[in-house]
């Protein structure tokens, strides 16, 4: 969440079919939400309860833009919600099941946030260990995302975040930025949402992946569907160990990364975390075709796919 932008799926032909499925499954016009551009020069807005499905559809459409050109991943990982698109790309999660799951996940997280209000804040320029130490000393504050060695996201109640932000500034952080998300994600405040996700997952069949799935919960590769279900539930209340997962996927033999979806945020994090791994983004058919041409010239150009 946070990578959405107006018209984000406008350049993805594969999304057309996915929007039709979404209309039948969710009774929602994701096509309009994901392709229309605002006419008043604003950034546009996404209904809170449809934001996660909109991002999931867009990332899956970008992934299909690659697979339709014969480009398939050797390994996948995702950042938070992106894990669902990554699992769909790896053949673990059927698109329709994923759509229902992320829709439930989004609503459950919003409901949990109404019961336990709070938010998230990014700390830039302070060691992750220092941020964790600060959060450990403040009731109601937790480390949510380990994005890079110099960028950590905190989660918690509004009061606890304000205290933690001030402590991080005093400890030498270059910046502390409150994120525009309405939930305190990836912390114990999301336990009610985790229980709902577990209940829905129990009735969904996950398949064995065509390639290893690297989980942000433990920064390890997984191929067992039962383990993956457990990890998806745990991810609701656990820190996203993103830069550690990038290091693990590099150690596993991946030699380049592709971010699929509407933004390039993860490419930036990858360049900071694993600077010797080339990273590129694909968010349109034109970018997918350009990547196909590049990989034809350099056979090892596609060594991994990363779904946001």
Write up this protein.
The relative contact order is 0.17. The strands form 2 sheets. The protein has a 6-stranded mixed β-sheet, sandwiched between helices. Strands 3-4-2-5 form a 4-stranded antiparallel β-sheet. The model is unreliable at 299-308 (pLDDT under 50). The protein has 2 domains: 15-114 and 188-307, Malonyl-Coenzyme A Acyl Carrier Protein, domain 2, CATH 3.40.366; 119-178, Alpha-Beta Plaits (2-Layer Sandwich), CATH 3.30.70. The radius of gyration is 18 Å and the shape is globular. It has 308 residues and is α/β, with parallel strands linked by helices. Helix content is 45%, strand content 14%.
Give the arrangement of secondary structure elements.
Elements: H1 15-26, H2 30-35, H3 51-67, E1 76-78, H4 82-89, H5 95-115, E2 119-124, H6 128-136, E3 141-148, E4 151-156, H7 158-170, E5 175-178, H8 191-201, E6 213-215, E7 220-222, H9 225-234, H10 242-251, E8 257-260, H11 265-273, E9 279-282, H12 285-297, E10 305-307
Parallel strand pairs: 1-6, 1-10, 8-9, 8-10
Antiparallel strand pairs: 2-4, 2-5, 3-4, 6-7
Dominant shape: globular
- Tell me the count of domains: 2
H/E element string?
HHHEHHEHEEHEHEEHHEHEHE
Beta strand %: 5-15%
Average pLDDT metric: 92
Oligomer: single chain
Distance between the termini: 9 Å
From the 3D structure, determine the CATH topology of the largest domain: Malonyl-Coenzyme A Acyl Carrier Protein, domain 2
Low-pLDDT segments, ≥5 res: 299-308
Radius of gyration: 18 Å
User: So what's the CATH class of the largest domain?
Assistant: Alpha Beta
Characterize the largest beta sheet: strand count, sense, and whether it forms a barrel.
6 strands, mixed
What is the CATH architecture term of the largest domain?
A: 3-Layer(aba) Sandwich
Give the structural class: alpha/beta
What's the number of helices? 12
| Biggest sheet, spatial arrangement of strands | 7-6-1-10-8-9
């Amino acid at each position: 969440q946070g990578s959405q932008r107006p018209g984000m799926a406008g350049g993805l032909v594969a999304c057309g079919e996915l929007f039709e499925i979404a209309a039948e499954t969710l009774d929602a016009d994701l096509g309009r939400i994901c392709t229309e551009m605002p006419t008043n020069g604003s950034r546009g807005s996404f209904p809170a309860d449809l934001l996660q499905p909109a991002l999931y559809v867009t990332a899956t459409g970008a992934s299909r833009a690659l697979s339709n050109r014969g480009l398939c991943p050797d390994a996948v990982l995702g950042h938070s919600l992106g894990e669902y698109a990554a699992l769909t790309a790896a053949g673990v999660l059927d698109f329709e099941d994923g759509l229902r799951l992320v829709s439930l996940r989004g609503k459950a997280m919003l409901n949990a946030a109404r019961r336990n209000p709070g938010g998230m804040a990014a700390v830039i320029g302070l060691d992750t260990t220092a941020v964790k130490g600060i959060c450990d000393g403040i009731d109601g504050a937790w480390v949510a995302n380990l994005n890079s060695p110099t960028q950590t996201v905190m989660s918690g109640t509004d009061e606890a975040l304000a205290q933690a932000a001030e402590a991080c500034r005093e400890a030498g952080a270059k910046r502390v930025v409150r994120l525009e998300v309405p939930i305190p994600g990836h912390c114990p405040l999301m336990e009610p949402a985790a229980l709902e996700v577990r209940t829905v997952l129990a009735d969904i069949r996950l398949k064995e992946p065509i390639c290893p799935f690297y989980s942000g919960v433990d920064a390890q590769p997984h191929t067992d569907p039962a383990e993956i279900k457990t990890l998806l539930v745990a991810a609701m209340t656990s820190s996203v160990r993103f830069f550690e997962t990038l290091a693990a996927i590099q150690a596993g033999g991946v030699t380049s990364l592709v971010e699929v979806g509407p933004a390039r945020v993860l490419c930036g994090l990858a360049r900071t975390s694993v600077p010797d791994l080339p990273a590129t983004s694909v968010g349109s058919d034109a970018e997918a075709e350009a990547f196909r041409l590049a990989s034809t010239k350099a056979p090892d150009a596609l060594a991994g796919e990363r779904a946001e």
